[in-house]
Design goal:
heterodimer, A: alpha+beta, Butyryl-Coa Dehydrogenase, subunit A, domain 1, Butyryl-CoA Dehydrogenase, subunit A, domain 2, 3 domains, 4-stranded mixed beta sheet, 4-stranded antiparallel beta sheet, 15% strand, B: alpha+beta, Butyryl-CoA Dehydrogenase, subunit A, domain 3, 16% strand, globular
């Protein structure tokens, strides 16, 4: 097995690491306090090509692979997990599905703008009664005058506050369960489409996560992405890819917590010596690092499978399941190693502790990852 | 009685009271980072500030087990109010009763018991965290007064809008090689000249329970404010911390219990895939594990309290109770968040607050690492060469 990165991948990783350390980390605290990612930072990332990672050159994309995507998300996450998630959503849950399932017309209409960051996208699947049970989506898309009219709500839509384009999963067939769902591309200024209340979360506070209300929201027939009835398939396949991003984000959280805790433990003296010289503390680092490395390998393995064009649902789910647990494990010990200081907002591990928690929840809870894995492992 | 059933009526009363006078304010206490006067007054009226103080000083005269059940139940409603009472009872009133002279007890205990005074415990310094023997804040006698200079940090119950008295550890023997044996405890009212609050900490959780730096600049208190003997402070704060650990364990049990109850309710009512999620074995087993751990942690806490009440040594058992209960509290809150999904991450729902609050229990009043040092030191009898 070859675990080495190509020169290009190494370079891309290096550049992302520099952006994380120089552009993201110094702004992370302010982004959290103000609950926003500055527009000029998003613009900068778009200009650097981070919003069109998977897209072909003809749309201004970088045409990169999942391995590079994962490397970048991991690095960005060290600086700001929230920014890393915005980049991940834009690429894996917006650009990629339009590229894969879109018509020529849809691609021409949207992809160049997505890559350039002129259109930031959002992915709207969850509803009050359709969380883990994604097939239970109730938001109705009824045929009308050659197009559709949509009525219902969505929850926990990341980027909802400022996104210009929404991938909305809606029910086109009330009788067909999970097979009765379809995916729509809906622009923000469509009449009947309202961005609602902002989610007030424990962490990732820079993320703008919204409720959506759709009331008599009329869209033309060409707003349909893929075929009718393919909505859940498109959503789940897109989530397979984005889970590699969340796994990479979790690895980045673990890595930065490790870095911060290592620095602190080297400087902090108690009982006349640096606390890093105590075996109990050293073994904490060993456990953090071992889990982090395993998580990173699972993530890279899922990314490599995705790049090879095969099925990777179970591997992506394993990566996300394990990496999110490893991130929380690391975040907890990171705070613990910092002692009282780790509980204070002046130390970044406090933020990472809160940020890490949601990696086990969004884009499919750990329980959903286990269902995906079990379904793949145990069938037949 | 091993099962503590005899305390259940008592618990029910405290739980009802905490549900009435504390729980409705818990979200606001967290959001505003402040415990409002109406809560302080109701807690005072319930007598909880002086739960362990004898009746002759206006206290309730409760034993340790009753006291920790109160801390547990109040923490179940609000960790911030719970930790305030844990500090008041264990770190201030208990050592004052053990080591205070008549004059000190008469001066301070009635006011501490009534809640007119909030007590804080000034041990930690920037370079004396887990290493408490490294105390640098110094006190020297000048005539009839102690003159104190130095700095404390992370001091709980430094409630700025309330009268506060602080039991402070100070170096009274300038010979640093004496370590903890050159340290004394002195009672310092917050309105003493030269006592200045520094920065109030911006904490992850337990918001409303004020944590501050304290600066002593030629701070003067009467000679009679020395608690116990000169250079005898180490013993006092070790005893106080032993007691404190039981109550921090109780706090973690209360927070864990609150998280468990929310998780149970959610598992029973949240429908996905056409059925309550509590019908799924993954959720059932998680709930089973959580409930078992909370019950085990609770018994460790009560058992340490019962040992203390019976006059037995309880240092190791208090450390075990705190170490285990705080870990259980965090794990149970973690699992409860998981069972709730996004709702567990939502600030409009109490669970994320519990998750943030309970993490402190693995850090404050001796980190889990220090508890393990205490426990293993007691267990392992290895002869030094």
């Amino acid at each position: 097995m070859d675990f080495t990165l190509s020169d290009e991948q190494k370079m891309m990783r290096q550049v992302a690491a520099e952006i994380a350390d120089e552009q993201l980390a110094p702004k992370a605290e302010e982004m959290e306090e103000k609950c926003e990612i500055p527009a000029d930072l998003l613009k900068f990332l778009a200009e650097q090509g981070y919003f069109g990672l998977f897209l072909p050159e003809q749309y201004g994309g970088a045409e990169l692979d999942f391995v590079t995507y994962a490397l970048m998300i991991e690095e960005f996450s060290r600086g700001s997990p929230a920014v890393a998630l915005v980049v991940s959503v834009q690429n894996a849950l917006v650009g990629k599905p339009i590229l894969t399932y879109g018509t020529d017309g849809q691609k021409k209409k949207y992809l160049a703008k997505v890559a350039a960051g002129e259109l930031v996208g959002a992915f709207a699947l969850t509803e009050e009664e359709a969380g883990s049970d994604a097939g239970n989506v109730q938001l109705r898309a009824a045929k009308k005058d050659g197009g559709y009219v949509l009525d219902g709500h969505k929850l926990y839509v990341t980027n909802g506050g400022f996104a210009g384009l929404f991938l909305v999963v809606a029910r086109t067939d009330p009788e067909a369960g999970g097979k009765g769902l379809s995916c729509f591309l809906i622009e923000r200024d469509t009449p009947g489409f309202t961005v609602g209340k902002r989610f007030d979360g424990m962490g990732m506070r820079a993320l703008d996560v919204r409720r959506l209300e759709l009331e008599g929201c009329e869209v033309p027939a060409d707003a349909l992405l893929g075929a009718e009835g393919e909505g859940l398939k498109i959503a789940l396949a897109s989530l397979d890819g984005s889970r590699i991003g969340v796994a990479a984000q979790a690895v980045g959280i673990a890595q930065q917590v490790f870095n911060e805790a290592k620095r602190y433990a080297g400087e902090r003296e108690q009982f006349g010596r640096p606390i890093i010289s105590f075996q109990g503390i050293q073994f904490y680092f060993v456990e953090m690092a071992t889990r982090m490395e395993a998580a990173r390998l699972l993530t890279m393995r899922a990314a490599a499978l995705a790049d090879a064009g095969g099925r990777f649902s179970a591997e992506a789910a394993m990566a996300k399941l394990y990496a999110s647990e490893a991130a929380n494990f690391a975040a907890n010990l990171g705070v613990q190693i910092h002692g009282g200081y780790g509980y204070m907002k002046d130390y970044v591990v406090e933020r990472f502790f809160r940020d890490a928690r949601v990696t086990e929840i969004y884009e499919g809870t750990s329980e959903i990852q286990k269902l995906v894995i079990a379904g793949n492992l145990l069938k037949g | 009685m091993l099962d503590y059933i005899e305390y259940e009526d008592f618990r029910a009363e405290v739980r009802a009271k905490a549900g009435e006078v504390v729980a409705p304010y818990a979200a606001a206490i967290d959001a505003d980072d402040h415990i409002p006067d109406e809560v302080m007054k109701e807690v005072a009226k319930a007598g909880w500030f002086g739960a362990t103080a004898p009746a002759e000083y206006g206290g309730l005269g409760w034993d340790t087990v009753r006291y920790v059940i109160m801390v547990e139940e109040v923490s179940r409603a609000s960790g911030s109010v719970g930790v305030m009472l844990a500090v008041q009872g264990s770190l201030i009133i208990f050592p004052l009763l053990e080591y205070g002279n008549d004059a000190q007890i008469k001066t301070y205990l009635p006011k501490l018991a009534s809640g007119e005074l909030v007590g804080s415990f000034g041990l930690t310094e920037p370079s004396a965290g887990s290493d408490a023997g490294n105390t640098k804040t110094a006190a020297a006698l000048d005539g009839d007064e102690w003159v104190i200079n130095g700095q404390k940090c992370f001091i709980t119950n430094t409630k700025r809008d309330w009268p506060v008295v602080c039991v402070v550890t100070v170096r009274t023997d300038p010979d640093k090689s004496k370590g903890a044996r050159g340290v004394s405890s002195i009672i310092v009212p917050a309105d003493a000249p030269g006592f200045n609050y520094g920065r109030k900490e911006n904490k992850m959780g337990l918001r409303g329970s004020d944590t501050s730096e304290i600066f002593f600049e030629d701070c003067r208190v009467p000679k009679g404010n020395l608690l116990g003997e000169v250079n005898g402070g180490f013993k006092i704060f070790m005893v106080a911390l032993d007691a404190g650990r039981i109550s921090i364990g109780a706090m973690a049990v209360g927070l864990g219990q609150a998280a468990l109850e929310l998780a149970i309710k959610h598992a029973e009512t949240r429908v996905q895939f056409g059925k309550p999620i509590g019908t799924k074995q993954a959720i059932q087993w998680k709930i089973a594990e959580m409930a078992t751990k909370v019950r085990a942690a609770r018994f460790l806490v009560y058992s340490a309290g019962a040992l203390k009440d019976a006059g037995h040594p309880y240092t190791k058992e208090a450390a075990m109770a705190k170490y285990y209960a705080s870990q259980v509290g965090r794990e149970v809150a973690y699992d409860a968040v998981q069972i709730h999904g996004a709702l567990g991450y939502d600030k409009s729902y109490p669970l994320e607050r519990i998750y943030r609050d309970v993490k402190l229990d693995e850090i404050g009043e001796g980190t889990s690492e220090i508890q393990k040092v205490v426990i293993s030191r007691d267990i392992l009898q290895i002869k030094k060469k």
